[in-house]
Amino acid sequence: MKKNILSLALCALVGFSGCDSFLDLEPLDKVSGDRLTETDGGIKALLANVYATVPMEDFVFRPYTGFNARDYDGVNGSSNIAFLSDEAARSEGGGGITESFEYWPYGDIRQVNIFIETVKSSQEKGILNAEDATRMVAEARFARAYIYFGLAKRYGGVPIIDRVQDGDYVPGNGDVLRVPRSTESDTWKFIIKEFGEVAGDLPTSTDGYRFTKWGALGMKSRAALFAASLAKYWDKAALAGEAVTQKLVGIDKSEADFFYGECILASEEIINNSGKSLYAANPSSVADAVNNYQQLFLNTPDNEVLLARGYADGTTNPNQGHSWSLYYTLAQVNPGALRYGRFSPTLDLVDLYEDYTDDGTGKSAPIKTRADGMEQNVTRVQLEGSIKLTDPYIQYEDLSAPFKGKDARLQASIIVPGATYAGTRILMQGGLIDPNGKIFIYNNNSALGKDGKTYFAFGAEGTASYSGFGNLGNSENGNYTTTGFSVRKYMEEFKTLSSNYNSVTTPFIDIRLAEIYLNYAEAVVESGKGDKGKAAEYLNALRHRAAHTDNIPLTLENVLKERRVELAFEGKRFWDMVRRRENHQYFDAGMRSALVPMIDLRQDTPKYIFVRANFHGDELQNGRTFTPQSYYRSIPGISNNGLVQNPGY
After folding, report:
1. What tens digit of pLDDT does each residue of 284-327 get?
2. What is d(CA 501, CA 323) in angstroms, rounded to the nearest whole number?
3. 111: helix, strand or coil
4. Is 345 helix (H, G, I), strand (E, B) or coil?
5. Residue 203: which H helix or E strand, with range?
6. Using N-to-C axis directions, what is the helix angle for 106-124 and 130-155, rounded to 10°?
7. In which domain, by residue range, is 159 found?
8. Which of 44, 77, 242, 468 gives the lowest tally of CB atoms within 10 Å of its CB?
9. Are 432 and 445 in contact (CB under 8 A)?
10. Which is nearest to 115 in space by CA: 35, 50, 187?
11. Which DSSP category does 94 fall into?
12. Which keywords are on file for this protein (predicted)?
């Protein structure tokens, strides 16, 4: 058993992510009860395995592969859940807008249930004291509730199995072990109840990356808001069939207030009693706000973070680290990654950020490209004649000029054309207009300017000297942004990166106080419950942290816009579109937007124009479509498990 004992401190250090790689343990359902209860250390090692079952959509989650996906799998290795939404796209244009892996983790649920029984048995035998046993059971129930959260948001109502079924088995009759699907409403109520109950048995203070009371209540807040939105907006994409008739999918509108109320209660408990606060809430300047917000995601400050996952350097053991800063680094600063630079934030998102007019309205300040204010996408921008130089495009002095004065969170979350990253000026340029007015776009043609200098459509000649629009549509070598923007959030530009995959150790923040503020504000606006004054205060606190000086009214539009800019690229937007039933409306042959900077050589001193365009990957497919049935995934294995299938499958 000695080889099976793993220090709990080590697992806490790495956030229990990948701890099973250190263990030479058989699956829990194949290990005898005696062996499991031999030592305190053995049980703590198994607790690491329990943590590893949590379906956190972190740095090693891939929407086409699944959880804890660290192995190289080609282009999919650089996939991200943001690419399934309107906030970003995969640069080469590949990938769909729905997940495509099977998540049906009842083996994990069984292992967690066995662990809970094992802990209780070990306490009875005196191997674990009551305090440790209580905490471990609560941690296991937290993990199990999180697993069910992962199931419910994908499938609706699912079978709830909260105990080991071995005693139910009748030889020759496996049907007694079959558990039917619960209704969607009851499934969400189970999840919310579990998170609420375990909160009372978990510590209030941080201990490495182990679960706390505030993490549990944060998950309760998130799950309750999800269920409330499903109830309120189910009829925006109503489905039909047996699963609907049995209420296995769909929640009655009448239940929305209950779920909003649970969200409000959990959020209030965190806000009022956790002692948590916004990191660097009162910046002295916009520049200070930019730095503070960027550091928030690199330093994982305890005062704002409720739940996070840590990593160790995976250079020697690849199951320990991640590759976020490597996969998404830019061509100009790439340390040697094979796949890189494929994270392309959309113009749709960039347009949402405010400037510092601060007139009390909170209105977005879309990027200005034309003097007449006719801001619309040019279709098939690469085709001759699509861009009309008779249109009144604004002539800018440099690449970064259109983005000056924008919200600090834009500057801290997104790399814009002409910005500095890792001490390098980033060239994201997609076209050139030669002195005679001939247009070159999406290829790196060159032309001689009136000043006698040679200019390139992509900003430079060498493929490692620019970061935008190269090898457009090439799945093998398309390592460039193709929307005109790249990601900065979570990127370790202040460190010298290794070229080794899984060598990045930046922790992933799953829940932070900012999300709780936004959950509360949304639930208050949607339900009319709670304290509207407090909700407005929390909404504006986030803007003040970004150096805004005014206060804006509490409206649903303001809350949802603030949610998008505050939580960009944190894995929330796709699921927000699901729970609010917005996916099928946006992706109804819809196309995400790009911004194509072009150098204009018609003047003695070159200028820049910026052309709005459809994202090329969406345009190639004549837009993307998300059908209502895709709000729920296909239940796997129905020929064996006898479960009712979801609509449309």
Report:
1. 999 999 999 999 999 999 999 999 999 999 988 888 999 999 99
2. 5
3. helix
4. strand
5. none
6. 170
7. 33-279+631-641
8. 242
9. yes
10. 50
11. -
12. Cell outer membrane, Membrane, Signal
Helices (H), 249-350: 256-273, 286-299, 324-327, 347-350
Q: Which helix (H) or strand (E) holds 219?
A: helix 213-233
Q: What is the CATH number of the domain that holds 194?
A: 1.25.40.390
Taking residues 397-423, report their average pLDDT: 97
Of the candidates 514, 333, 487, the residue with the CA atom closest to the CA atom of residue 413: 487
Provide the 8-state DSSP code for 64: T
Tokens of 559: 């809350």
Task: Give the C-alpha separation, 625 to 623, whole Å.
Answer: 7
Q: How far is CA 493 from CA 325, 329, 418, 460, 588, in A?
A: 8, 9, 16, 22, 37
Residue 199 is encoded by which pair of tokens?
């909160």
Which residue from 491, 482, 492, 488 is spatially nearest to 410, judged by alpha carbons? 488
Q: Considering only CA atoms, which of 87, 78, 71 is closest in space to residue 340?
A: 78
Residue 558 resides in a domain:
no
Using DSSP, state whether 299 is helix, strand or coil. helix
Instruction: Kindly state whether residue 575 falls inside one of the protein's structural domains.
Output: no
pLDDT digits (tens, 9 = 90+) for 606-619: 999 999 999 999 99
Residue type, 93: G
Residue found under tokens 């049995």: 246
In a domain, 544, yes or no: no
Dihedral angle sign, alpha carbons of residues 574, 579, 580, 584: positive
Q: Which residue has the higher pLDDT, 71 or 192?
A: 192
One-letter amino acid of 48: A
Nearest to 523 by CA among 277, 266, 349: 266
Q: Which of 518, 519, 523, 515 is nearest to 232 (CA)?
A: 523
Beta bridge partners, 432, equal 440, 599
DSSP string of 592-615? -EEEEEEEE-SSSS-EEEEEEEE-
Angstrom distance (rounded) from CA 610 to CA 638: 52
The model's pLDDT over 492-513, given as tens digits with 9 standing for 90+, comes to 998 888 889 899 999 999 999 9
Model confidence pLDDT, tens digit, residues 142-178: 999 999 999 999 999 999 999 998 877 667 776 777 8
Alpha helix segments (H runs only) across 511-555? 513-527, 532-545
Angle between helices 184-199 and 256-273 (to 10 degrees): 20
Helices 513-527, 256-273: axis angle to 10 degrees equals: 140
Task: For residue 415, give both structure tokens.
Answer: 């790399």
Locus of tokens 């936004």: 518
Beta-ladder partners of 73:
none
Write b or e for each residue in 269-285: b if 16 or more Cβ atoms lie within 10 A of its Cβ, otherwise e: bbbeebebebbbeebee
CA 540-546-551 angle, 5° bins: 25
Q: How many helices (H) and strands (E) does the chain have?
A: 20, 16
Question: Which tokens is 140 given?
Answer: 């296991």
Phi–psi pair at 508, nearest 5 degrees: -95, 130
How many domains are contained in the chain?
Answer: 1
**Residue 394 within any structural domain of the chain:** no
Predicted confidence at residue 35, as pLDDT, reads 58
Q: Which 3-state string (H, E, C) describes 185-202?
A: HHHHHHHHHHHHHHHCCC
Of the candidates 230, 279, 290, the residue with the CA atom closest to the CA atom of residue 254 = 230
Whether 483 contacts 415, CB under 8 Å: no
- 524, 531 in Cβ contact below 8 A? yes
* β-pair partners for 593: 614
Sign of torsion over alpha carbons 392, 394, 397, 399: negative
Whole-prediction pTM: 0.94
